[in-house]
Amino acid sequence: MTPRLEVDLRTRAGSFSLDVTWTAGDGVSVLFGPSGSGKTLTLQCLAGLVRPAGGRVVLDGRVLFDGAAGIDLPSRGRRVGYVFQGCALFPHLDVEANIGFGLRNRPAAERTRRTGEVIERLGLRGLEARDPRRLSGGERQRVALGRALAIEPALLLLDEPLSALDLPARRALRDELRSVLSSWGVPAVLVTHEFSEAYQLGDRLIVYDGGRVQQSGSRGELLWRPASESVARILGLRNILRGEVIEAGAGHVLVAWRGQRLQVRQPADLAVVPAPGTSVTFFIRPEDPRLLRKDGPFPSPEHHPNILSGTIVRDDDFGTTRTLLVRVDAPGPPAQGDYDLEIEVPRFVHQLLGIDHDRRWEISVHASSINLLPA
Fold this sequence. Notes:
This protein is an alpha+beta fold. It has two domains: 5-234, P-loop containing nucleotide triphosphate hydrolases (Rossmann fold, 3-Layer(aba) Sandwich); 240-372, CATH 2.40.50.100. It contains nine helices and 21 strands. It has helices at residues 39-47, 95-99, 108-121, 137-149, 167-184, 195-201, 219-224, 229-234, 347-353; strands at 5-13, 16-24, 28-32, 54-59, 62-66, 71-72, 80-83, 155-159, 188-192, 204-209, 212-218, 240-249, 252-257, 260-265, 279-284, 290-291, 307-317, 321-328, 341-346, 360-364, 370-372. A six-stranded mixed sheet has the order 7-8-9-3-10-11, sandwiched between helices. Strands 2-1-4-5-6 form a five-stranded antiparallel sheet, covered by helices on one side. It has a five-stranded antiparallel sheet with strand order 14-13-12-15-21. The chain is elongated, with a radius of gyration of 25 Å. The two termini are 27 Å apart.
């Protein structure tokens, strides 16, 4: 990846310390992490709204900030568009004036032409004279995007652009936002603390926690190969468990967990093969374990070596899916409070298997569904 944006920032805000280094290319880079981890502060530094204590920011070879060299371009000279949390439209300006706000110092003819182009491309024709308070959530979002894009930015910054919307609207507008960002071809940095949003909108994810970058990479890399247990927890992964290596060979690892012997398919990119006796952390996605039908067909040990038995201690209904909390038949306290595994099943499977009337099950966990985390 040839970086379009190079970020090295160090600053403080009260007792909070930000110290991050990362790069981004074309497409959408998402700053993801819990609230208070420094994501919005980073955007403010990139936009020139906050002056960092030190570091360097380079956009397409242009130095926006260099603490050592004393360079700090003002916001108006950075060619950076900013979509604020909640859209932050000017309530006293209509749609056309909001979109053209950043063009107010340009010649009238150019301002009119550019505003019209943006209105046309974003499907806002006919709303030019409308008061922002009379717009739908999606229309407000498009106006906020239009205002940021009208200046023809070299970089677009979006701070929780969907946070002001209710859940159904957020889901409906994710696709629209992704389409707009793709069609305009402007590299973007987007902030969110919702993983589904980060995954759907981002090409690259940068995980923040406590003012530091914990991991960065493609969205697939983050989803399937989190760099540590802490990153896995920030991503909201469930069934994060601990065991001990019994043996490790070519392409496999045997792990002891809760009195069970779990066969794990060793990932090809595992940097260090754990030695026998080593403590390891692993995760199993709730949708991967499979409840075994009691009338067959029964899986062969060769293809499904990990067969567990246990009791469903809780059954949570999420409409189209059910989450089963299972306590495995094993000595000692469960791994997670009063249960060991979360298993997610579609509603029709729950009904088909008659789970409401039968709480005792055998469970198959494929070796490739057990994901070892780096130490």
